[in-house]
Amino acid sequence: MTSSDNQPHSQSPLTREAIAALLPHGNEMSLIDRILQWDHHRIVCCTTSHLRSDNPLLTDGNTLKTSILMEYAAQAAAVHAGLINSNLGLTRPAYIGAIKNVEWHYDEVPNEPNGVLEIAVNTELCNATGAIYDCTIHYGLAQKKTDEKDAPNTENSAPDLMENTIPIENKTLLLTGRLVLVIPPQ
């Protein structure tokens, strides 16, 4: 391992499409909007997909059960595994092998208009056949940048919210858990 493995990557931000390409199920089910930071051992992502009316995981009352957030963590872990593998010249999807030690602190994810989910996954073990990740998901309200003009809040403005905000503060812990990802051989 080189010292650069621990340095956060500051490459150009990945588009939602590029993030979706790292997931086995593609764009329709892609829940991650943005990667805030990643290195060899960790990735931190954020999203407002819990606010989108086309989110396939919403209940009839347009709410998201907190237990479903493990799918968000799994996607963050799969994106992380994909980014690491792509740096090694590999492009293989990762699949959930096990979910363990899940604790959620609320029944439903709040759905305030400027609410953001922050997903952080840390590798505990990683090799060519898979990885074990510890996961935490926080919820917070995005704060608009002070130099941005207030834009009207519409149902389709969730992605714009990600571009025009600073990181969330006063985060609320929603979920913790552990994921085992399996990377099948080629």
UniProtKB/TrEMBL annotation:
Gene3D superfamilies named in the record: Hotdog Thioesterase (3.10.129.10)
Protein origin, superkingdom: Bacteria
InterPro entries linked to this entry: ApeP-like_dehydratase, HotDog_dom_sf
Pfam family, one: ApeP-like
Record-given protein name: Hydroxymyristoyl-ACP dehydratase
Annotated source species: Marinibactrum halimedae
